[in-house]
Task: inverse folding
């Protein structure tokens, strides 16, 4: 909810994020189609599931999306750092789209 409040409704520098959207066979936490970016949040339930998470990430990347992963604690403790990382990825992704990269 903390991160969603920051990125929803084009509040995030005009980038539109959707929450819990299907990409391929997966439901992703947040996706920005314009920037071809998926943001995933990992909590304690992901401990021990690193192989499955890596497989999921490869599959999503295979659909042409960049995936950023953050721990829930990153959002709680370093929200500004998380938002800066997301913004940079959005900017890079949107720029790459515009230049055909």
Result:
């Amino acid at each position: 909810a903390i991160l969603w409040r920051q990125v929803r409704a084009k509040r995030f520098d005009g980038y539109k994020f959707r929450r819990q959207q299907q990409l391929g066979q997966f439901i992703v936490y947040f996706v920005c189609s314009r920037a071809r970016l998926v943001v995933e949040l990992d909590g304690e339930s992901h401990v021990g599931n690193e192989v499955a998470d890596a497989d999921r990430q490869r599959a999503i990347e295979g659909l042409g999306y960049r995936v950023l992963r953050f721990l829930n604690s990153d959002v709680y403790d370093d929200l500004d750092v998380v938002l800066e990382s997301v913004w940079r990825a959005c900017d890079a992704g949107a720029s790459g789209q515009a230049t055909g990269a």
Remarks:
- Residues 78 and 90 are 19 Å apart (CA to CA).
- The first helix runs from residue 2 to 7.
- The beta strands are 18-23, 26-32, 37-42, 66-71.
